[in-house]
Every structure is written in C-alpha cells, then in structure tokens.
Amino acid sequence: MSSKLKVLQVIPKLGYGGAETGCYDLAHYLHEQNAKSYIVTSGGSLIKYIDKKKVKLIRLPVQSKNPILIFLNTIILTVIILFCGINIVHARSRAPAWSCFIATKITRRKFVTTFHGTYNFNSSIKKFYNSVMVKSDLIIAGSNFIFSHINENYSNHLNKNQKLLTIFRGINLEYFDSTKIKNEAESKLMNEWKIDKTLSFYQKKIILFPGRLTSWKGHEMFIESLNIFKQKNPDKLFYVIILGSDQGRKIYKKKIQRLVEQHRLVQDILFIDNCENMPLAYKISDIVTNCSIEPEAFGRVAVEAQAMKKVIVASDIGGSRETIINNKTGFLFKAGDAVALSDILSHIFELNETTLKSMGNEGRKNVINKFNVEKMCFSTYSEYKKLIA
C-alpha cells in the first residue's frame, strides 16, 4: 500500500510557521514510509532545507487569492496530479484549497484539508470562501478547539461521507532540545542582541515574547502589563525580547514602540525581527509569553517553550487550554487582562529554582506525550492509508 501512496501537499509559502513546519515534517516522513512526497508552494525560507532527494518541490503562485491565478493553478495542479499519479492532495490554506478542490474533482482523487485557524468571517461571501476547507474527504483539525469551531460554524457544509478528526500539531523534539545547545552559542546570541550579562538570570529574568507583530497577538496589552509589573515590583529586574517580524505592518510596530517609550521601558525591551534558531532564543530565556487576545488555533509557541523546559504564560483561550497544564507546565491568564498577566509574572519571580526546573521538566514530558512530530506524522499517514484503502 505505502509504495503506491503519492501525496501532494499544497501550501502558500514555506516559512517557519506551524502549518509550514508541519507540511515540511510530513513531507520527509512520507519518504521514510516509502511513499512519494510532493510539495507545491510559491516559495519561502524553509525551502532551502528540503531534501530534494526525498521531496519533489514544485513552485506555483498558490499564495494568490486572485481568481484568475486560482483558475490557472487549478489547471496546472490537474496536470501535475495526472502526470505524477497523485493519490491524495492535501491543502493547508484556503486560496490553494480552491484550486485543489476543483482539481481533485476533475481527477477523482482524494482531497484532504488541514484547518489551521478560525478564519474570521464577517459576511456570507467570506464564510463561503472559508468553507472550501471543509469540502474535503478528510478534514484535519489542529486542535480540539478548532474541531469544535468547525462543528459550530460549518456544520451545514459537512456530510456523512466526510471524516473530521483532530490531529494535534507536533514539533521536532530533537530540534527543540535544550541539551543540544552549547554555552558558546548562548553567549554569542546574547552578545549579538546586546543583552546585559552582568546580572545572573535569577536576578534579572529574560522574558521572551515570540510572534509576528499584529494587534491580535496582544503586544499592547503585554507592554501595559510590564508597566504595571514594574510599578508594583521596582526591585524585580527583567529584560524583554519581543521577537517577530511586522510583515509590513510598519504603523503597528511604531505604535507599540511609542507605547514602550511612553511607559519608559526602552531600556527593558528589545525588538528583534527574526531568529532562525528558535531553540536558542528559548534557551536564553527564563519565561516565555503568548498573549493573544483572539484564540490561537493551536499555539505553537506554548508547545515549543515547554519542549525547551521553559515556563510558559499564555492567554486562557483557544489551543493554549489544550497544550498547557495550568500551574504544572505553565500558567494561563484571562485574555486581554494586563493586571492578571502582571500578577502571574510577579508569582513566577517568587518561585525558587527547584520549582521552575520541575515545571520545565513537566512541560517537556507533556510535549513528548502529546505533541511530538512523530505522532502527528504517523497519525496523518495512517489516515491517508485508510482514505485510499
């Protein structure tokens, strides 16, 4: 069966996001199972790491929402499916999903989608556009939160011939492993980011906030919280790294930078656009935060932080409720509540090293048990085989 399986994954761009890394990991896993693996994408920084001997890469403008390009992509995908003898087409975003949906109807191949987000809709047209993600033979939800979201909002688009299930996203535990990072690498990054090393971590804690700069990620609330925390705890020293690209949102970045200046936190907060070695960024940190004011579909940051044995603080909404064991592997706070976040930070600063280390160990155990990449890939591969059996 596996030797006959040929899977084509289609994703707009191969960056470092959860959907992208999941696509990348699954593509290479399929090769190890003697299946043929293909990826169609428009580009992305992760492409350079693809093993071309294991995965066939095809470049198409599948990131575009232009109806003409979607139609042209449909024609090209149809040709690719027929020429390569593809069994299963797996779409991971809405625009390419429309091309894949039509192409699989024409070629009579199995269609799979992964619902990676809540996909906001404020009109019937937008909801119809989103509905392509539930027009597949197999619909994969990245968390139980997304599973419920699909049932609540798209039940009228589902039928008994479709299969809807949850397969948690997984991360590479060999990559996110603190024991594999050398002290020299830590020192080098600290120097590059000009982080003051004159105080030990237990005196001056480093707080990492990873995530692209966009309003729903909660940067404004986070900065407000730091201001409250500093006023209440003048003796508690911290250094914050806000790590993420503005992706063209220049005005928003200036807005949060002005907020930093307004609260006189310029000396306490560092903005970094990107970091290709995320395990290293986690390693030099003491606390990791995920402050989204809208539900995260999964919350990859929370899982990565736990894998690196770091205490994670996250909004009590969306996927974080499933990935974090509250008060055991991290802490959940009321979304959008700057005071609540400040109180949790104060609590963490009071914890001793033994407690913090224990929480870190429990966090990694949690990820190993539920969110490792092998489990994600095996579950998806098993569903593929059932689909074409």
Give an overview of the whole structure:
Helices cover 43% and strands 17% of the residues. The chain has 389 residues and is of the alpha/beta class. It has two domains: 2-170 and 372-388, 3-Layer(aba) Sandwich (Rossmann fold), CATH 3.40.50.2000; 178-370, Rossmann fold (3-Layer(aba) Sandwich). The strands form two sheets. Strands 3-2-1-4-5-6-7 form a seven-stranded parallel beta sheet, sandwiched between helices. Strands 10-9-8-11-12-13 form a six-stranded parallel beta sheet, with helices on both faces. It starts with 5 loop residues before the first strand and ends with a helix. The mean pLDDT is 93.
Would you kindly provide a brief summary of this structure?
With 389 residues, the chain is an alpha/beta fold. Helix content is 43%, strand content 17%.
Query: Which secondary-structure class do the elements indicate?
Result: alpha/beta
Q: What spatial form do the alpha-carbon principal axes imply?
A: globular
Largest sheet: 7 strands, parallel
Q: Uncertain regions: pLDDT < 50 for 5+ in a row?
A: none
List the topology elements.
Blueprint: E1 6-10, H1 18-32, E2 36-41, E3 55-59, H2 67-84, E4 88-91, H3 94-107, E5 110-115, H4 124-130, E6 138-141, H5 144-153, E7 163-166, H6 183-192, E8 204-210, H7 219-232, E9 237-243, H8 250-262, E10 269-272, H9 278-283, E11 287-290, H10 300-307, E12 311-315, H11 320-323, E13 330-333, H12 338-350, H13 353-370, H14 373-388
Parallel strand pairs: 1-2, 1-4, 2-3, 4-5, 5-6, 6-7, 8-9, 8-11, 9-10, 11-12, 12-13
Helix pairs in contact: 1-14, 2-3, 7-12, 10-13
